[in-house]
Specification:
With 230 residues, the protein is α/β, with parallel strands linked by helices. It is built from eight helices and seven strands.
């Protein structure tokens, strides 16, 4: 079975995407807060240029940019409707003048020298057939030496008891958070088709891509988060 792409999901109306994601993703608000706190701590005072991989919707840029006026952003995403949504959301904010979002794969981006990068709930849609490693390498090549990548991904090994238990709790969490039972079940079933890999494999791919120190910063059911340093 082919790996599930982001756009292959039964997505809600895109204007409601962020609200729907809050129902399903454990600790979603904490993820953004952790990323912001990490970058505030790690980046030097003054201007910083941040690469956002999977920038569709614009939420990361808005959340990181509103309180940090010296940061600028370059986002890339391959799904045009989400890119359009991000541009619309940013257009009426002060962050718009400090951000650009491109409809492209990060490997096509000519800019480099980024102070930091984010890849939040994106890489698990990229299959581990060489494409996931290529993604991590493309991000690494565009970062300054020592710059942090904040990466958060679904992880697991489909069919293993632990992974299946977390999938069921994921479904129950969504229902407890207000999602319809059938929608929650469909979302949980998608996990079997998303190109997740084990924690060990994800870390091995990051190291092979050229990242050195990798620090765990988040765990929420089947989602793990790290800071990986270029």
């Amino acid at each position: 079975m082919a790996a599930l792409k982001f756009e292959d999901q039964d997505l809600p109306d895109l204007s409601d995407y962020a609200a729907a994601a809050e129902q399903f993703i454990p600790g979603r608000r904490a993820i953004f807060a952790i990323v912001e706190a990490s970058f505030v701590e790690l980046l030097p005072a003054g201007p910083a240029k941040i690469l956002v991989v999977g920038a569709g919707g614009g939420e990361e840029i808005l959340r990181l940019g509103e309180k940090n006026p010296s940061w600028s952003f370059v986002g890339v995403d391959t799904f045009e409707p989400m890119v359009d949504l991000a541009r619309r959301r940013l257009a009426t904010t002060d962050v718009a003048a400090r951000s650009a979002i491109h409809l492209m794969d990060v490997s096509a981006l000519h800019e480099s020298g980024f102070s930091a990068a984010t890849c939040i709930l994106t890489a698990h849609f990229v299959p581990d057939d060489g494409a996931k490693l290529a993604l991590f390498k493309a991000i690494r090549e565009r970062l300054e030496p020592g710059a942090p990548l904040a990466i958060f991904d679904g992880v697991g090994v489909n069919g293993e008891a632990r992974t299946e238990l977390l999938r069921r709790i994921w479904q129950r969490h969504a229902v407890c958070n207000g999602a319809d039972e059938d929608v929650a079940q469909s979302n949980a079933e998608n996990f079997k088709r998303v190109a997740v890999v084990s924690i060990e494999r994800e870390l091995a791919l990051l190291r092979e891509a050229g990242f050195g120190e990798i620090v765990p910063v988040f765990r929420g059911l089947a989602i793990e988060g790290w800071l990986a340093f270029a």
